[in-house]
């Protein structure tokens, strides 16, 4: 038997403008996982808190360094690169979260060696032996491209004679 979805209780209208209640809600959310400032603000507003008091609380949390976009971006890059995702996909996900492109570029530049990561992902997924047939090379290249690796990274995973754009 399927249960109906739980409806989320909206915030009490008396507490919607209370900075203390907003701060407690923000800290509760942040205790579960790391958030970007824009992501946390949007989440609090959708829960029913006022936009102006939320912005003030977000600013306080940022000043106290409890909320830090650079830390969020750095952790995000490390986590997703560890899962075998390339820089293009990571950049797209971070941009969708509303983070500035300068921070994203900094974190990706300081991130892992994506060419080596691409080789590891290809080997882990398809084995150490490089494919001989063009059809199989193209299939593997599409997989790596979907994971967010550039043509240069894919080329390095297959060797110097491979060109995925041919």
Q: Could you characterize the architecture of this molecule?
A:
- This protein has 166 residues and is mainly α.
- It folds into three domains: 19-63; 69-110, Arc Repressor Mutant, subunit A (Orthogonal Bundle); 114-158, Orthogonal Bundle (Arc Repressor Mutant, subunit A).
- It is built from nine helices and no strands.
- Helix 2 packs antiparallel against helix 3 and helix 5 (87-96) runs antiparallel to helix 6.
- The longest helix is centred in the first third of the chain and has 14 residues, at 19-32.
- It is elongated and about 70 Å long.
- The mean pLDDT is 88.
List keywords for this structure.
single chain, 166 residues, mainly alpha, Arc Repressor Mutant, subunit A, 3 domains
Please write out the topology.
Layout: H1 19-32, H2 37-46, H3 51-63, H4 69-82, H5 87-96, H6 101-110, H7 114-126, H8 134-146, H9 151-158
Helix pairs in contact: 1-3, 2-3, 4-6, 5-6, 7-9
Secondary structure tally, helices: 9
Q: How many structural domains in the coordinates?
A: 3
Q: Could you give the order of the helices and strands? A: HHHHHHHHH
**Number of beta-strand segments:** 0
Categorize the overall geometry. Answer: elongated
Derived structural class:
mainly alpha
Question: Percent range for helical residues?
Answer: 55-70%
Task: Please indicate the percent range of residues in DSSP E strands (runs of 2 or more).
Answer: under 5%
What separation lies between the terminal Cα atoms?
54 Å
Radius of gyration: 21 Å
Largest sheet: none
Mean pLDDT over the residues: 88
Segments where pLDDT lies below 50 for 5+ residues?
Answer: none
